[in-house]
Write a structure and sequence with these properties.
- The structure is a single chain.
- The protein is α/β, with parallel strands linked by helices and about 290 residues long.
- The chain has a domain of about 200 residues: Rossmann fold, CATH 3.40.50.
- It is built from 11 helices and 5 strands; from the N terminus they run αβααβααααβαβαβαα.
- The protein has a 5-stranded parallel sheet with strand order 2-1-3-4-5, sandwiched between helices.
């Protein structure tokens, strides 16, 4: 009986030790797990902080780029200046004041050509001038419809009041096939017309006729120069003439009254016209130095 009690007590004691050991082991495991979990949490917190810093840096970079982009947008973009297009040629239209022989020596047309060649410009030139012919003949040579010319003739006859008007007010010169031929439609026109009449002494009619000649041109019809010449017989109101010309043609107009110190139709006068034409070509950007 005593042996049985002793054996039972031993087993109970052993079980007690085992329970105590398990309790200690469980407590150790719980402590280790808590420590491990804390370490994991700490690591996650650190990683979260790093991620937040990266996001902040990215945000700052993005904001900086956006600001730079705005600054670039706000900066005015420099426009590329287009290089001026040099014309293929220059076409001279209107009045010639000299004989064929003297023209080659004194004409403003010839003097301008010589100056341009001396300055190194390689251009084509068309001579569509007429000596002693009125503006009706000039328009005919340009290709203005005959119906338009007939209207001017009837108007001039009516203005004459039963008297015979000057021949240039109603007459049109017989032009040759060569004179009627056009190869200059893309050239820059220089128009000097009006000295011999044909416009009823009415400056408004003259600018209308000049426009009709310009309208026969092509690519360069908006690039032109008008030289003011009028009859020297006192039949034209000069202040009115100049007013209409300057108001109509603006910077495209050269007033021979303003630029000539001698008579326009003289050799020296034509030299002054040639110089003014050269300067006007530069001023309007039709040629460049």
């Amino acid at each position: 009986m005593k042996r049985k009690k002793k054996s039972s007590w031993a087993w109970n004691f052993l079980l007690l030790i085992i329970c105590a050991a398990l309790t200690v082991a469980l407590a150790g495991f719980i402590a280790w797990d808590s420590k491990t979990e804390a370490a994991k949490n700490e690591k996650l917190v650190q990683e979260a902080k790093k991620g937040s810093k990266k996001e902040n840096i990215k945000g700052e970079n993005k904001s900086e780029k956006e600001d730079n982009g705005k600054e670039e947008d706000e900066k005015p973009k420099e426009e590329k200046k287009e290089e001026p297009q040099i014309p293929a040629g220059i076409s001279f239209w209107g009045d010639e004041f000299f004989t064929a022989e003297n023209e080659l020596q004194y004409s403003s047309r010839v003097k301008l050509e010589e100056k341009l060649k001396a300055e190194g410009y390689t251009l084509e030139y068309a001579n569509k001038t007429l000596a002693g012919a009125g503006t009706l003949s000039v328009m005919k040579m340009a290709g203005v419809p005959q119906t338009d010319l007939d209207k001017y003739i009837e108007k001039h006859k009516a203005s004459a009041g039963g008297t015979t008007p000057p021949v240039t007010e109603t007459g049109i010169r017989d032009l040759t096939a060569e004179e009627m031929e056009r190869s200059d439609k893309d050239y820059i026109p220089i128009i000097t017309m009006g000295y011999y009449g044909g416009w009823n002494k009415d400056p408004k009619e003259l600018v209308e006729q000049q426009q009709k000649v310009l309208d026969t041109f092509g690519a360069n019809k908006d690039k032109f120069i008008i030289v003011g010449v009028r009859p020297m017989d006192g039949s034209v109101n000069i202040p009115e003439y100049e007013k209409v010309m300057k108001e109509t043609w603006g910077e495209h107009y050269i007033s021979t009254i303003d630029i000539c110190t001698v008579t326009t139709t003289t050799a020296d006068g034509q030299t002054q016209v040639a110089d003014a034409l050269y300067n006007k070509l530069l001023e309007l950007g039709y040629i460049v130095k």
